[in-house]
Design brief:
Number of strands: 8
CATH architecture of one domain: Roll
Largest sheet: 5 strands, antiparallel
Shape: elongated
Number of helices: 1
């Protein structure tokens, strides 16, 4: 390669790195200006989360909330617990999902069985 070509290549690499550095630095300082309107990046529901943010962090039955159940074909139902979709047979941390019916989710936490019940007012709980 000619020295002139090498110099151009080096300058191009430096320029690209500088552009990436500036782009990422500016992106971190971005603040949304609401101008009196609701921030579209803040969720409308689910703001009253418990201290445990994920099912993997749950160790107590009291921290669980059954938010919904979707009935699938062939009994392949899906439940939404604490904002996470789960299916029967799945193990998340201390929780093992045993069975999902139209209104209940049977699960085990630390070898103890529990049932979450779905109602119109929200998730209800009962232990066996």
């Amino acid at each position: 390669m000619k020295p002139k070509m090498i110099r151009r290549t080096i300058m191009l690499v430096i320029l690209i790195n500088l552009l990436f550095f500036v782009a990422f630095t500016v992106a971190e300082d971005f603040k949304y200006g609401s101008h009196g309107k609701r921030d579209p990046f803040v969720p409308l529901v689910g703001q009253d989360k418990s201290a445990a943010t994920s099912l993997i962090d749950i160790t107590s039955f009291e921290d669980l909330k059954l938010e919904g159940i979707a009935l699938g074909s062939g009994g392949k139902n899906t439940a939404i617990i604490n904002g996470e979709m789960v299916k029967a047979g799945r193990k998340i941390g201390e929780i093992e999902i045993k069975k999902i019916t139209a209104n209940t989710v049977d699960l085990v936490i630390g070898n103890k069985p529990y049932t979450l019940k779905l109602s119109e007012q929200g998730g209800q709980k009962s232990g066996h």
